[in-house]
From TrEMBL:
Protein name (Swiss-Prot/TrEMBL): Acetate kinase
Protein source organism: Limnospira platensis NIES-46
EC number(s) from the headed UniProt entry: 2.7.2.1
Active-site annotation: D154
Binding residues annotated for substrate, in chain numbering: R97
Cofactor(s) this protein cannot do without: Mg(2+); Mn(2+)
Family statement: Belongs to the acetokinase family.
Principal subcellular localization: cytoplasm
């Protein structure tokens, strides 16, 4: 079964193609036979990178014409040195990561008109993501026609959160109308929990884990009994931790103040909170942690403040997840910052020695692949896991088509 996966983020479009043979899934993730990343950059400039057959190709794209760029990306499957298919009709199914499924979907589902309408209706709750998902779905329809498409929802893994964690302390009637905490990055949190359980040789249901998905978007999940019992993102991906360009949680009265005293409207508030805040808001330049750390090492005070704020809010969030678990069997770092942020992991973990959590500095610096970077006398293992969201999406597609 040839499965194409489209994983649209807030600033990129990642895609890959898996070729799964046989009647059962392998025990560990397969390597995709083709991979592509579109970094939308700052329109009209963007870049596409395609890897296949041992070849890596990079090209400039027009970031303002996303449909055309996605079509160009798909053509690399059947043309040039990155060709891995004779024709696009060989693709059996296309899986999409979809950030927000609301209360309508708690599991992977075949995409039809109703599913597309729901994704569109939920754009106000995930304005940086759901439009990109619809663009990807539409592009596949134009190029591949009636090939089955599957939506794998970020919200699904958090759908069993206890009501005490899911309901906001506002008039209850709003909960009945769908205003609740949904949680996001569920595919990543679920995969990382399962991978850690595999490495520890224990059932996921027996472990209490905190998974830290730290990228341009950041969230934590508290996993107990095999499900997410708490998480930092909420009604939208804006709640919770400080992120690349998103503020995370702030006093909502700030928004009321800006509306009353400065006449700000909803569009301006949305732009500030989702695109101009977080690391970018404090540095004034960039929301990329690599930029922050480079400037930090050069003595840039605002970069140092941005880093310190990021760590403070991350540690505070871990503390709240810990309280939801009543103990900890493993702390997990994943995604771009989580997997590569040596200093972030170091500074995050140093104040948790009171629960017996200690990092091994050498392991933390030199970790390759998935592994435990805790000191030998640490009572709590600390894992770095390469999140395999794409593989998790592919397996959902496989199960759905096989059933």
């Amino acid at each position: 079964m040839k499965i194409l996966v489209l994983n649209a983020g807030s600033s990129s479009q990642k895609s890959c193609l898996y070729d799964i043979n046989g009647d059962s899934l392998p025990a560990s993730p397969l390597e995709p036979i083709w991979e592509a990343v579109i970094d939308w950059g700052m329109p009209p400039f963007g870049q596409m990178t395609v890897k296949a057959n041992g070849v890596k190709q990079e090209s400039k794209i027009d970031g303002s014409q996303k449909d055309k760029a996605i079509g160009q990306m798909l053509n690399s499957l059947i043309e040039g040195e990155t060709q891995v298919l004779n024709n696009l009709g060989e693709i059996n199914v296309v899986g999409h990561r979809v950030v927000h499924g609301g209360t309508d979907y708690s599991r992977a589902t075949i995409i039809d008109e109703q599913v597309k309408e729901t994704i569109a209706r939920l754009i106000p709750l995930a304005p940086s993501h759901n439009p990109s998902h619809l663009q990807g779905i539409a592009a596949i329809e134009r190029v591949l026609g009636n090939v089955p498409q599957v939506a794998v929802f970020d919200t699904a893994f958090h759908s069993q959160m206890p009501l005490a964690a899911a309901v906001y302390p506002i008039p209850y009637e709003w909960f009945t109308k769908g205003i609740r905490r949904y949680g996001f990055h569920g595919t990543s949190h679920k995969y990382c929990g399962e991978r850690v359980a595999q490495l520890m040789g224990k059932p996921l249901e027996s472990l209490r884990l905190i998974t830290c998905h730290l990228g341009n978007g950041c969230s934590l999940a508290a996993i107990r009994d095999g499900i997410s019992v708490n998480t930092t993102m909420g009604f939208t991906p804006l709640e919770g931790l400080m992120m690349g360009t998103r503020s995370g949680s702030i006093d909502p009265a700030i928004l009321i103040f800006l509306m009353r005293e400065y006449g700000w409207d909803s569009d301006r508030l949305n732009e500030m909170l989702n695109q101009q805040s977080g690391l970018k808001g404090i540095t004034g330049i960039s929301g990329d942690m690599r930029y922050v750390q480079k400037e930090q090492s050069s003595g840039n005070e605002r970069a140092q403040l941005a880093f310190d704020m990021f760590i403070h809010r991350l540690r505070t969030g871990i503390g709240s997840m810990l309280a939801s678990l009543g103990g900890l069997d493993g702390l997990v770092f994943t995604a771009g910052i989580g997997e590569h942020g040596v200093l972030v992991r170091q500074e995050t973990c140093k104040d948790f020695d009171f629960i017996g959590l200690k990092l091994d500095p050498e392991k933390n610096r030199n970790i390759k692949g998935d592994g435990n970077i805790a000191a030998s006398d640490s009572q709590v293992p600390v894992f770095v896991i390469h999140t395999e969201e794409d593989w998790a999406i592919a397996t959902e597609c496989w199960h759905l088509l096989k059933s």
